[in-house]
Amino acid sequence: MFKSSLTLLLPLALAACTMGAPPPANEPAPRPPQVGQDDAGHQGGGEDACGAERVQSRLGRAYGEALHQELATTSGARQVRVMRPGQAYTLEYLHDRLNIRLDDGGRITDLFCG
């Protein structure tokens, strides 16, 4: 009798050891974005934190190193990323980064923050 009870209780005891901790109770809800933050919560994001509006006149121009420097300087962006067709790139949003999208011919098709 004792031996059969032990064989029944042993699997239950082992199962109790493998249970994870219960989820935390009363965890606070995430805070909504504050005024002046973008969707990712970056402070001071704004619509044009990278200066893309200041360089829209360069759309359609052939991309090159000199134009890259001009875009970086004129926009005031802290970072500049070139996006070529078929090229892999990350999806993180950086409010102060200027993105330069090129077509197959190396011409600028889009200038935007992110």
Automatic annotation (TrEMBL):
Bias kind Pro residues: ranges: 21-33
Signal peptide: 1-21
Domain of life: Bacteria
Alphabetized Pfam families for the sequence: Inhibitor_I78
Keywords (A to Z) from UniProt: Signal
Disordered: region residues: 19-51
Name the record gives this protein: Peptidase inhibitor I78 family protein
Organism: Bisbaumannia pacifica
